[in-house]
Design goal:
Blueprint lengths: L1 H7 L1 H25 L8 H17 L1 H7 L5 H36 L5 H24 L10
Length: about 150
């Protein structure tokens, strides 16, 4: 029963997971900034990176779930499995387009790790937006209809 309830609200749950993953990456950036780049890939920064990545991967399955509502089970399963690939692929495309636009600002900065961490900052914006849109797109089933 509880599992059914979780899957009936998976779009909303997945949106929250995406937001949680983006927040973990915000905290990772906070750790890096607060240590002036001394801790980038160890300790708290590494833990937050891994937690964020897991939350983003699991949360991105909500994209496939949302896009395959009211479809055959096979289509729903394929969409849910492929949606993390789609989400990270779209992010990489987004980063490839936006990074050259912000490069002049980053290069003029005297913060040496800014260029290395810029894609994480872009990912935060991207996945926060996607998570918010997923969360807001959730529509509960009508009382007389099955979930």
């Amino acid at each position: 029963m509880h599992l059914n309830l979780l899957f009936s609200k998976w779009t909303k749950v997945a949106g929250l997971l995406l937001i949680g993953g983006a927040l973990a990456w915000i905290l990772k950036l906070g750790v890096i900034i607060s240590t002036n780049g001394r801790i980038i890939d160890t300790g708290a920064a590494a833990l937050l990176m891994k937690v964020g990545l897991i939350l983003l991967a699991v949360g991105s399955t909500g994209i496939g779930h949302r896009l395959s509502l009211h479809r055959a089970v096979l289509i729903k399963v394929v969409a849910i499995i492929l949606s993390p690939v789609l989400a990270f692929g779209l992010f990489l495309l987004f980063a490839k387009v936006v990074t050259p636009l912000i490069s002049p600002v980053i290069e003029s900065s005297n913060v040496w790790y800014a260029q290395q961490e810029a894609p994480i900052g872009l990912a935060v914006l991207f996945f926060l937006t996607v998570g918010y849109l997923l969360f807001r797109s959730y529509k509960p089933a009508l009382p007389n209809q099955p979930a």
